[in-house]
Amino acid sequence: MRWKCLKMTKQLGVKIYFANPYHSWERGLNENTNGLIRQFIPKKQNLKELDPKFVTSVQENLNNRPRKSLGFLSPIEFYNDAVIKPNSVAFET
After folding, report:
1. Does the pLDDT of residue 26 top 60, yes or no?
2. 51 versus 14: which is more confidently predicted?
3. Average pLDDT in the 44-72 region?
4. What was the pLDDT predicted at 30?
């Protein structure tokens, strides 16, 4: 599996980081996000039992919550500022 990822990193020019199993301190952002999700969905909750509308509301809540790691922008604001706006051109001459 890793060799496929290495091939992909060369083709795309991106880096992939592999955290070691059971080393949660190597995945800080992931662990923080899990904690935020746990504010809405308890551990061991069967995700198949959740109403899709509820999952969407959790998603919207978290995507609109400001994050310290993003300079106190929400993920939506950060994405729009970093990805959408630099590439959006109404008219080009």
Report:
1. yes
2. 51
3. 94
4. 84
Distance CA 57, CA 45 (A): 17
Helix/strand/coil percentages in the chain, nearest 5: 60, 0, 40
* Contacts of 19 by beta carbon, 8 Å cutoff, 6+ apart: 26, 27, 30
* Helix, strand or coil, per DSSP, at residue 73: strand
Residue 84 tokens read as 């959408």
Question: In the block, which residue shows the tokens 């990193």?
Answer: 9
pLDDT band at 36; cut points 50, 70, 90: very high
Strand ranges, E, within the chain: none
Please report, for the chain, the start and end positions of each structural domain, with discontinuous segments joined by +. 1-39, 46-93
Of residues 82, 69, 79, 73, the one with CA closest to residue 28: 69
Cα 84 to the chain's mean position, in Å? 16
